[in-house]
Amino acid sequence: MSDKIVKGLNITKEFNGVPVVKNIDFWVKKNQFLTILGPSGCGKTTTLRMIAGFETPTSGQLFFEGKEITNVPPYMRQINTVFQKYALFPHMNIYENIAFGLRIKKTSEKDVATKVAKMLELVNLSGFEKRSVNSLSGGQQQRIAIARALVNEPKVLLLDEPLGALDLKLRKEMQIELKNMQKELGITFVYVTHDQEEALTMSDKIIIMNQGEIQQIGSPTDIYNEPENAFVADFIGESNIFTGTMLEDFRVKFCDREFVCVDKGFERNEMVDVVVRPEDVRLVPKSEGLLTGVVKSVVFKGVHYEMLVTENDREWMVHSTTMEREGTEVGLLMTPDDIHIMCKEG
User: Fold this and answer.
1) Average pLDDT in the 118-146 region?
2) What's the whole-model pTM score?
3) How big is the CA angle at 333 (ends 328 and 339), to the nearest 5 degrees?
4) Which of 79, 209, 294, 315 is 20 to 30 A from 181, comparing alpha carbons?
5) Average pLDDT score over residue span 193-214
């Protein structure tokens, strides 16, 4: 039996004739934490809503555990959703909020009590049963929304930017809690966000979308270290991106000079995009650099300095724990492994 619990084939969604999701294929493995990542309007939430059953694809097929569910209504799917706006019932206390789905399913009160207690323990809110939801902080409300979704024992939990309303410190804490929860429960999470750090922190696999299309699917490490195009490289972290020419296998020309790289398989003299991450650029004495430039600005970022270096009217971003003063002439040095080549977009 396949370990792919959710699968989409040739999925397209149009609104008033305008495609917002364009013929995408994807799959989610059992017990995986998968994140759909992309800028606003890229189609990620629409994709999540189609998995949930709140939207129906214009064309294509959706499968759950090998069975087609394209036209199956939400209440008949073993899938629950947590939204950014938690949609808790203000007239019910915490116990009643969590118990709501179980009561709909006619669960016995004894089982309701057992399951609600288990969920409250999981989200570290034991003893909060009688409290009003309005008395809770944003982080606590988010935990209750998750508990209400998990108490129904879905095989897949969908989360649509659930941390978006929280402050930065709490958001980082909840990222760790969510990942630990997912591991402890052993169920599949599909998470939507536009926050790159969130995706890199929590995910087993990331789907990056832009303008309704999938740009890359892979592990956080693969996507960060081996982006497939300039959009991915620029969206995941910060990058120096230059136009170059692939002279031959393992040799590329950009910034007016030739470099050794580790990429191959391109056409001779093919135009390419060259990506170098800021943390992979070393500042060295001018005489030791592959390129030379002048430090234009320096900003302290807490764990590193961010420096802009001007090199022949081009700007390089450099991240380093060692600062060079503004106006200093420096050499720029990078290894072949630090130079990433990808097909030219457009």
Assistant:
1) 84
2) 0.84
3) 135
4) 209
5) 93
How many Å apart are CA 313 and CA 132, to the nearest integer? 60
AA letter at 183 = K
Question: What domains sit in the chain, N to C, each tagged with a CATH number?
Answer: 4-225 (3.40.50.300), 238-343 (2.40.50.140)
Q: What is the mean pLDDT of the chain?
A: 91
Quick: pLDDT tens for 66-111: 999 999 999 889 898 887 676 788 888 899 889 988 888 888 889 9
Residues listed for the chain: 346
Side chain identity at residue 261, one-letter code = C
Rounded Cα distance between 326 and 310, Å, is: 11
Question: What's the 3-state SS for the chain?
Answer: CCCEEEEEEEEEEEECCEEEEEEEEEEEECCCEEEEECCCCCCHHHHHHHHHCCCCCCEEEEEECCEECCCCCHHHCCEEEECCCCCCCCCCEHHHHHHHHHHHCCCCHHHHHHHHHHHHHHCCCCCCCCCEHHHCCHHHHHHHHHHHHHCCCCCEEEEECCCCCCCHHHHHHHHHHHHHHHHHHCCEEEEEECCHHHHHHHCCEEEEEECCEEEEEECHHHHHHCCCCHHHHHHCCCCEEEEEEEEECCEEEECCEEEECCCCCCCCCEEEEEEECHHHCEEECHHHCCEEEEEEEEEECCCCEEEEEEECCEEEEEEECCCCCCCCEEEEECCHHHCEEEECCC
The per-residue pLDDT for range 207-217, each reduced to its tens digit, is: 999 999 999 99
Q: Using CA atoms, how far apart are residues 344 and 346, in angstroms rounded to an integer?
A: 6
Note the pLDDT tens digit of each residue in 265-286: 999 999 999 999 999 999 999 9
